[in-house]
Here is the input.
Amino acid sequence: MEETSYREAVRSALREEMLRDQDVILLGESITGYGGSYAVTRGLVQEFGPHRVMETPIAEAGIVGFAVGAAMGGLKPVAELMTVNFALLALDQIVNSAAKFHYMFGGQWSVPMVVRTVSGFGQLGATHSQTFEGWFASVPGLKVVMPSTPADAKGLLLSAIRDPDPVIYIEHSLLYSTKGPMPDDPAALVPIGRARLARTGTDVTVVAYSRMLLQALQAAETLEREDGCQCEVIDLRTLRPVDYPAVAQSVRRTHRVVVCGEDWRTGGFGAALLAEIQDRCFDDLDAPIARVAMADVPLPYARNLEQALMPSHEQVVQAVRSVL
Amino acid sequence: MVLIRHFEEHAAEAYAQAKIGGFLHLYIGEEAVAVGALAAARPTDDLLTHYRDHGYALARGCDPAACMAELFGKATGLSRGRGGSMHLADRSRHFWGGYAIVGSHIPIGTGMAYAAKYQARDDVVLEFFGDGATGNGIFHEGLNMAALWKVPVVFICENNLYGMGATLAEESPVKDMVIRAEGYTMPARQCDGMDVISVYETVADAVAHARAGNGPFFVECLTYRFRGHSMADPELYRDKEEVRRWRALDPIARFGALLVDERICTEQELTLVNEQVEQEMLQAVAAADLAPVPDPATAGDLVYANPIDPAQPSPPPDPAEAAARPPAAVGGA
Here is the structure.
């Protein structure tokens, strides 16, 4: 079967939704002639024109605010924020505007918009190597998705664009060139709020998402080979709302859990995940929940220092061994 | 204007009686801006305002009882008791709300105006904000985009000389807010915000400019709030003589005098209007008082338009949700 790259999967979701619905527009920094910082939107302005693929000033809060308004005016905007680090400039519009209006104005309208942004590393220095999914996932009113495979990248983006609520859709810079099979039906939606069983196993449940899902699968291979341990790996896919029923179902069989993420250990998404799993699954657990997370350090530039801190499959292996 | 004045006075009284919680920002003194500007727009033109928003809701024709009920935190409130004083909204009247993060609505209205242009509607967006908002980066981001994409929006600055407790001289290097528009090549005009006719005429020109497809327009209304920033404001930053000078320019008294001078109505008729409005406001307060509070069981509702419960099986695809405008009828943006 022909495989599709993660980058191509995101682009095809954008393109197909734009073909299907003329109210879908894109906006972002250097997304037209340049084609986007990670080349996701390349070619789309030529196909759809500058009124649907909008080059914006460098103004992240303005971009998201504009998208909120365009959504209120009847469009379905997809705003690109070049990286999640720059999304901090737009936090007010994401948290105080997009996430609040449906509730705060008594349900009179919703904000059907998507913010596409990117987590990742690669010797980019402390201000460009962060991952804030835990912040977004803590906000009622937002939905947060982080696909790990090309198929999910496409199917979740289709769902996100059609959803009436604001969706934070976080890509990963280290996944763009990864490839994978696409579903038989190219227009198939992947539902928001559903985890995916990425690998079945009986000894431990490893919960991961985005790049860490790949690291978890690699760790599972190592553990099978070296320890005879069968890891069950769950790809969360959606971080708000989390598919806790799927996690709990797995934990009832394995009785051991490792949660994996790339954001900081203190207050990161893994911390919230761990607490909730403990609340729901305490009686099923035979060991404390272990966690793979970023050390509480700003990421340095030097390659060896960065690699020493980046959560990896080796750390997942160690974490699993600690709960066996 | 009379209705707004009476509404606000009753709100202040109810606040003193602890029937209203949180913050309460009164519009008293600035009535000519909302009334003059909205009279110059169509009822279908979209409206976004700052958090001192009661006057706009009333000038747009929202039910005073529903506005008061929102202040009282009642289920019958304009925003069902979820918004409060700073977050009134009535979508059916194209009143898209009061915004309490200063300046945050500037790009939002710009985006709404783009949607109108994209969908080839001839609606105009009116955005109101104070002089204080012009110090915020989001104001400039919004103006920049509006000018860049020539969207049909009218920015209306209520320059009341204070950003909460900061004087204009403390918060801005320019005294005239219209200068802010120059950097965006945006036409701008100043008007007397204490004169409802001046506001009306200026905003009418601005709206016509935007509706004709000429892009955004900036209006500055020179005005003054007679009361403190909020009910908690001891007004240590301005002197009483200044307040007295501005009170002499009361927009209601001025317009009333004009109506009598021009023989459009008599003093007696003005008195009658006052009495009728007062009766209406008494009824609004009584209705808000009697209205039920929101059911606590509903506190968690409305977070999402499409709530997703992972414990439930996937819902079947909703044909309405999948509704899309096929590309055949592409609009004229």
User: Anything to note?
Assistant: The two ends of chain A are 38 Å apart (CA to CA). Chain A has a mean pLDDT of 97. Chain A has two domains: 3-181, 196-323.
